[in-house]
Design goal:
Number of helices of chain B: 9
Largest sheet of chain A: none
Shape of chain A: rod-shaped
Distance between the termini of chain B: 109 Å
Distance between the termini of chain A: 73 Å
Strand content of chain A: under 5%
Radius of gyration of chain B: 30 Å
Oligomer: heterodimer
Largest interface: A-B, 59 and 60 residues
Number of helices of chain A: 5
Order of helices and strands of chain A: HHHHH
Strand content of chain B: 5-15%
Strand order of the largest sheet of chain B: 2-1-3-4-5
Shape of chain B: elongated
Number of strands of chain B: 7
Number of strands of chain A: 0
Largest sheet of chain B: 5 strands, mixed
Structural class of chain A: mainly alpha
Chain lengths: 135, 394
């Protein structure tokens, strides 16, 4: 009898939480689907089996390009711009030994359409990697 | 006379040099990635982490920072920053579930509390305090990061939060502490203490005696119920639902962060430039006041001690030069005030945008917590009745 009351309570609670999550998801979709924190998912691969957390994370943080949300303006602009890449200047080496920051600088420079900004990013890359001897 | 003139010239020259000197603060572009545990830790040895809403640190804002810190933005950041930290910890894969906690009621294995000390787009400083479910303090540490303009580059921003390094550093220290100080047996104990604390919350009459407090006031396990204890099983069912509730709150926090991100980043980037300009102008003004005062005093001393007309004229020239430098200091101060006003205006603009979101988030969280707590109260009563039946009171 008491267990039955408990079970009914679970059912009510589960239904309540489910509707609340639908509501939260609807709010999330209305807010736009840009990934929080910029992602950096290539930095560390999440372990499988994070339990409730992993499931929630996937739900609350849709990957870029997922259909669960409307991409933000900045995301759309960036992704359309990323299609075009620009070759590195002649003094820039292959980048095989780049660490994560150097790699990000290189990618940012190669994807930058504005020549002045692009050159500034390559300068930053040179400074960081020590090509200019200033690291 | 020549010696006096030389001294005077030295003072004036020094004043010019000092007023022109600039202090350069090096903002870093170095990036610390998240460290992942090299060992593949079994799931039952992963600790669950609860990150509390940060203290906005309004009581600790001192001096000139008060002029340029918007309290409402700090409050908004006190929800934004811990979410970013929780997300970083979860992404590291070094922990079990990591959640931004809506309240203090749900026991977790590890608790992370933070206070925002500085946040102006250029610099971020957070005081972090870590403890575990037994109540033992792991450590306290202040994290400080000054970032470069590069962090606001759109391509870079697409990948990371401008202050991602600070969250990575906190995550890496937390991992290092666990690796160096917490044995597998202690991890198991921490997990058990968390479970018993949760059980005690729902059925204190049954689970109270399984935990005792040692001389330091930290919880210790004195005995344990059988793993197949029916009441413990019921409590575990309820705990699963408590996690569901916390997960639902995460959805609201995630939406809040998503809504805040764009205007907040824009504010941070503009604030970055204004903060640097303000600091440089204030430094420049201060140097000019010091140098100008030195030149005036030197000139006066030279003029009053001079025995010839030329030396007196030289002294007065020094006074004039000093006065000019002081005046330029006032000009710089006035220019700095314009940047203070610009920062205030920027802050007000962001406040107008984010404050309603903070209120809405709080409303939703409090309402949800209230509904859940009502249900929990019913379950507490049912568990108490079940226990009474078991011991023959009903």
């Amino acid at each position: 009898m008491l267990d039955e009351r408990l079970r009914r309570g679970y059912e009510d609670f589960d239904g309540f939480i489910l509707s609340e999550r639908e509501r939260a998801q609807a709010q999330s979709n209305a807010a736009g689907g840009s990934q929080i924190g910029g992602g950096a998912n290539n930095e560390v691969a999440s372990k499988a089996g994070d339990g409730v957390g992993a499931a929630s994370q996937q739900q609350t943080l849709p990957a870029p390009g997922s259909t669960s949300g409307v991409p933000s303006a900045s995301q759309s602009a960036s992704s359309s711009r990323a299609v075009e890449t620009f070759s590195p200047p002649e003094d820039i080496p292959s980048g095989r030994d780049d660490d994560v920051v150097a790699r990000q600088l290189r990618e940012a420079a190669m994807n930058e359409a504005d020549p002045e900004l692009r050159e500034a990013l390559w300068d930053e890359y040179r400074n960081y990697t020590g090509i200019g001897g200033e690291r | 006379m020549r010696v006096q003139l030389k001294k005077l010239m030295s003072v004036v020259m020094l004043a010019c040099v000092v007023s022109a000197c600039a202090t350069h603060i090096v903002n870093t572009t170095s990036y610390t990635p998240i460290v992942q545990d090299s060992q593949d830790v079994p799931e039952d040895l992963l600790l669950d982490v609860g990150v509390a809403i940060f203290d906005p640190g309004i009581d600790e804002i001192r001096g000139r920072d008060e002029e340029t810190t918007n309290h409402q933005i700090r409050i908004a950041e006190s929800r934004y920053a811990p979410f970013m930290l929780a997300e970083t910890l979860q992404r590291s894969g070094n922990w079990g579930i990591v959640r931004l906690m809506p309240n203090q009621s749900s026991p977790m294995d590890v608790y992370v509390n933070g206070t925002i000390l500085i946040s102006n787009g250029e610099e971020m400083s957070i005081r972090i305090s870590v403890s575990d479910s037994t109540g033992r303090q792991w450590y306290k540490k202040v994290y400080n990061e000054m970032i470069s303009q590069f962090s606001y580059d759109p391509a870079q921003r697409q990948r990371n939060d401008p202050f991602q390094v600070i969250y990575n550093n906190i995550a890496n220290d937390l991992l290092a502490h666990r690796q160096q100080n917490i044995s597998d047996q202690e991890i198991t104990e921490l997990r058990t203490v968390s479970e018993m604390l949760f059980a005690k919350r729902f059925s204190p009459e049954v689970f109270e005696n399984y935990l005792t407090k040692n001389r330091r006031g930290n919880y210790e396990i004195s005995s344990l119920p059988a793993d197949n204890d029916p009441l413990l099983q019921r409590v575990r069912d309820i705990r699963e639902r408590d996690f569901m509730f916390i997960d639902t709150v995460q959805d609201y926090y995630a939406t809040y962060v998503r809504q805040m991100r764009q205007p907040y980043d824009s504010w941070r980037e503009q604030s970055y430039h204004e903060t640097i300009a303000l600091r440089e102008l204030r430094d420049s003004a201060r140097r000019r006041f010091i140098a100008g005062t030195a030149a005036v005093l030197g000139g006066l001393a030279a003029a009053s001690n001079a025995s010839t007309y030329v030396a007196q004229s030289g002294g007065l020239l020094g006074v004039g030069a000093g006065a000019y430098v002081i005046k330029s200091g006032f000009d710089k101060r006035a220019e700095a005030e314009m940047h203070v006003a610009a920062l205030s205006e920027l802050g007000q603009s962001l406040e107008n945008e984010v404050a309603p979101n903070v209120i809405s988030l709080e409303d939703r969280t409090i309402t949800l917590s209230g509904s859940v707590e009502e249900q929990y109260e019913q379950w507490r009563e049912i568990l108490a009745d079940i226990y009474a039946v078991e011991i023959g009171e009903l």
